Every structure is written in structure tokens, then in C-alpha cells.
Amino acid sequence: MEYKILNTINSPNDIKCLNNNEISILCDEIRNEIISVVSQNGGHLASSLGAVELTVALHRIFSSPNDAIIFDVGHQSYAHKLLTGRRENFRTLRTENGISGFMRPDESKHDPFVTGHSSNSISAAYGIYCAKALLDSKGTAIAVIGDGAMTGGMAYEALNNAGGRKGNFIVVLNDNKMSISKNVGAMPRAFTKMRNRKGYHKMKFAISTILLKLPFFGKPLHNFVYSIKEAFKSIVYKNNIFTSLGFNYLGPVDGHDVEAMERIFTIAKSYNRPTLVHIVTTKGKGYAYAENKPKDYHGVSSFDIDKGKNISVVDTYSDVAGNTLCKLAAENKKICAITAAMTEGTGLQNFALKYKSRFYDVGIAEQHAVTFAAGLASGGMIPFFAVYSTFLQRGYDQVLHDAAIANVPIKLLVDRAGIVGDDGESHQGIFDVAYLSTIPNVNIYSPCYYNELESTIIDVSSKNEISVVRYPRGTENNNYNGKISGDYTILSNNSDKVIVTYGRIFANALDAQNSLGNVDVIKLNKIYPVSNELVNLLFNYKKIYFFEEGVLSGGVAEHIGAKLAEGNFSGKYHIQAIKNEFVGASSITSALKKYKLDRESMIEIVGK
Q: CA 20 to 30 Å from 213, out of 138, 226, 320, 434?
């Protein structure tokens, strides 16, 4: 697409000499390009649209890569990618072998750290800043955090560590008044209170700007005035959480006014102490559909720009899980639902409306969510924590220590289990079986179809155990009308060969069996712990083929293989799983084919 200014930008240095009118045109062009590409490829739209002017201002004042800029989560970094040499490749965003939807150091020297999960930017940026100081390297480090990431506890651990020390370390709070779901808790209220004090900060910025422009003695005078102000600050103006943690606080400032942000970033660069700059932006800025419904446009699949995205009316696994919890809650007042800022993503929107007193959105705080669930269970409730597989990784210690040791019967609904597609390495749900199966007292179930998912959730709700129910992203391929019950289901053709699998790809195994004929299929319903009855059954076969949509190391196939080896299994078995590697961005169909977990690959491997 032809753009007047954007097509001339090949590095951040190219925007430093632009005038104000050209900057305004550039921001419009960046927005248009983001909307155009995301409408084709899908991606995180509203977050990146809101951060356009902020990103331009950062690159105007700071000098990447010497000044390391880290965007928390990374889904706000689309404008950053366009300004840092990836303009020509931007149309490959989130496609197989294309550029990532998040920050990737192997993609550009302007991406100093891998991002994808939230609340880690301050820790990473402070580490990079300290490394620069120790090595006497040029530049500073800037953490750009927002979009709900300040509800994550790791952010405060980093603020506590960095606060009050010397050095020009900078945190930019991109306060868009939204996270993935509506912001919850005390922090959003604190930010709102800060936003309402603009008069004070406008005067402060004006004075600082004037002093810093004075030749020779401007900066010393500025620092002297600042020290006097700090001494009397508690008398005339109450501290906020950031100043209490040792940060100099600047803001709030309009996050869509490039000139205002350039002034405040210039002031921030002048301090020899950690500084937090509070920027207020509008999520979805510049695209009416996204501005009006930012949570609906946080992460989108392809859509018609003129008509907006289609709101799907087709049930997904997430919807089935959420609706099943609603049914249970209607019958049992002990049923509770927990989400970590993903109400809509995990299908809990109806539960949140119908059973408000038993619904808890804890913010982006999976560690807290797990232990909170354990507390609810210890108090006599039946808590279900619905969470994406990739985000549950943050709660591993809490599952182990706060639930499993005392065998507290929490229920984990692990959404997006298996390959998720275009979001790439940071979001693939391929590790949960491996890490959860290391924990005693954990029971893992992996249904394939909607009716099976519903019956499994209902079943575990009455079990006095730690239950994990995992299910994939998207919709079912219902190609089986038989009954599924017990720990496993056998579809026998009286063969001496058997396919062993679970979850979504059971549908592929069933298709392969129908094509091959001479092979049995065992569908694992409860995939861990592995029952001795199942292992004994497998000794009847000469060839066993495991197909597993997860990592090989620590997977179910390895657990079963170890038991077969202990019993001196004389036949042969083959494990088809994801080798110990990260799965990049691609369609789910393409990824399943790549790792030979699709129908055709099963036919090829078993039919040899």
C-alpha cells in the first residue's frame, strides 16, 4: 500500500526529523496499516491502535536499540515493528515463517527481550538497565506496561526492586482504562484518581520544561527545585503508590498528543532516579468499532474493515465449558468460577452475569487465582478456575504447594490446550500435561467433543480431587456417535495394532481407523494418572502408535512407555508428539500436519 510518510521509514532515526504535520500523517498511516494487516491476518488490534502516538513519541526521544524499549505482553508493539525496519514484512504478521505478533530479539535488534506473557517488562527492562550500568554501556531501558499488566504481581516485585535507587530507569504506564476484560481491583481506581489531577501535572510539566531549556544552570536549577518540591510534597500533595515505591511520578499526559509526550519523556530522561511516566490512551483509537467495543477487538481473527468483525454465534469449547458451569451453579450454590482477566476468552461471561456473587475476576494474576481457589475449596466451596494453558504455567508452584500437598480439591479448566495457531511460541498450550503430571494428586482429563466436555466437568464437580479438564481452542469436529465413558474407550477391530490418543486429535485417529480398517483405537479420557488396567490391555498388542498433541518429554506417551518397559513389553511402539521445541505461528491445521498429528499423517505412519 502506498503511504506518503510511512513508506519512507526504515529505522527509528527516520522519524526524528519529521515536523508535527508529518508526524500526524505518519500516525494515521500506521493505524491504517495495522487495521489493514490485522483484518487479513488476525491479531491484537485495539491494544496496538491505542499505542501508536506513544510509540512514535518514544522513538522520537529515545534511541533504540541503545535505549532498550520493552513492550509488556508485546501485543502493543505493532507500531514499533513498523518503525524498526519491518515495514516491508509487516504483512506477514502472525503467519507461518512471518514476523511475530510479539517482540522477538531474533527478529530485530530493536526487540531487546521476548514478550508474550504479561507483567514481565519492568523486571526485564530493569535487568537490562543494570547490565548497561555495570558494563558502562550507552543508553537506558524503558518498560512500557499497561493493558491490564499492572494487575500482575510480578510488576510490583520489579517496582519494589527498582524503586528508590539511582539511575535513569524509566517505566511508561500505558493506562488505557482496559485490560482484556474490564480492569478489576484497586489499581484501576488508583489510576483513575491520578487521571483526575491534570491541573497539578500540567503546571509541573511547564515549569520543568522551562527550567531544562535554560542554558548552563537550567538542569542544576531544575534538580534543586525538584528536591525542594519533594521535601514538601507530602504537605501539599499526597503520594501515590509509585512515589511510595521510590519512583518519580510524571503524568498523567494525553497518550495521543505526541508533542506532550515528547516533552514529558525529555523531562524523564533528565532524572537520575527511577521514573514512572503515566500516559492515558484510548484502546482501539482511530477505528470506531474497536473504540466502542475494545474488549471485542482485543484479539481478533480476520474481518471486514468496513463492517467490523463478525461476532461468532457458533459455540466453542470455551462456551460449552462456561455454559456447563452455569448449569452446575443453578443446582449447587457451592459452585464458583474464577478467571484471570479473561472472562470472555474463557466463556464465563454468562456466569459473570447470572452468578455475580460467585464469580471472581482476579486480574492478570494466575498465581493468586490458584491459591485463592485453594482457599475457597478449603472453606467448603467448589471453585473452577478457567485459564488458558499457556497462562497456567505461571501458577505451577501454587498448584504444587498450595493445592496438591494438602490435596485441596480445586478444579482447573485448562482452555486453549494443545496447538493454538497464529499467536506462536508464547501461547501454544503444549506443556500443561508434561508439567502437571509431575505433581502428585493431580488428575487430568482431556475430552474431545462438546458433550464429553460437559459430562466431564459435571463429573469432576462432585469428585473430592484436584481435577484438570483440558480442551482446545475453537470448535469441535464431531465425527463420533458412540458412548465415551470411564478412563478410556476402546474402538476395536480385533487388530494387533492400536492407536492411543486423546483430546481433539482423537477425531483424526477415528478418521484414520475408518480409512485403514485394520487398527484399533484407544481414546484416553482420563490421561493421568495412567491406569494399570490400560497398561495391561496394551500388552495384548504387537504395535502401539501414540499420537499426542503436546511435548514428547513428560507427556502421556512417555509415562505409558515407561510402564510398558517395566513390564518387558515385547512389541514395538511409536510415539508421535512434538519434540522438545517451541511451536511457531501458523494455522492449527498446518501445525498439526507439520507434527504429523493430522489424519493423513496417522494413515501414513500406521499404514506402513
A: 138
